[in-house]
Amino acid sequence: QVQLVESGGGLVQPGGSLRLSCVASGFSFRSVAMNWYRQAPGKERELVARISSGGGTTNYADSLKGRFTISRDNVKDTVYLQMNSLKPEDTAVYYCNFRTVLGGVDYWGQGTQVTVSS
Fold it and tell me: What is d(CA 60, CA 82) in angstroms, rounded to the nearest whole number?
């Protein structure tokens, strides 16, 4: 069965960095684009970044201003989110996700908490 397991979150000072990981199993990871979403307290889940199946194309939320970088390793079946210059407003639960090509069915990890605070 499909499994997405995020890790790497934690408490970090403003201006600090974290790298999130999402290990995938149960599907053809190398064949699908992967996404990172986040959900802050009291807010709806929002798309942070996505990466094409081969890793050649990436897209980011405009509000991130180039601070985040998504990447993937199709040998390790892992997608990463490098987060730099973190701000308090980046505090959220971060989720990895993919959507099936045929039916538009979404699969989600359990999320990893990122807290940016001094």
Answer: 12
- 38, 47 in Cβ contact below 8 A? no
Separation CA 91–CA 115 (nearest Å): 5
Residue 17: per-residue pLDDT: 98
Q: Would you state the structure tokens that stand for residue 41, as one six-digit string?
A: 């307290």
The first and second tokens of residue 90, run together, are 């980046």
pLDDT at 103 over 80: no
pLDDT of residue 1: 94
CB burial of 74-109 (b: ≥16 within 10 Å; e: otherwise) equals eeebbbbbebeebeeebbbbbbbbbeeeeeeeebeb
Considering the chain, what percentage of its residues have pLDDT values greater than 70? Answer: 100
8 Å CB contact between 25 and 9: no
Which residues have C-beta within 8 Å of that of residue 113, sequence separation ≥ 6? 9, 10, 92, 93, 94
Dihedral (CA of 9, 11, 12, 14) sign: positive
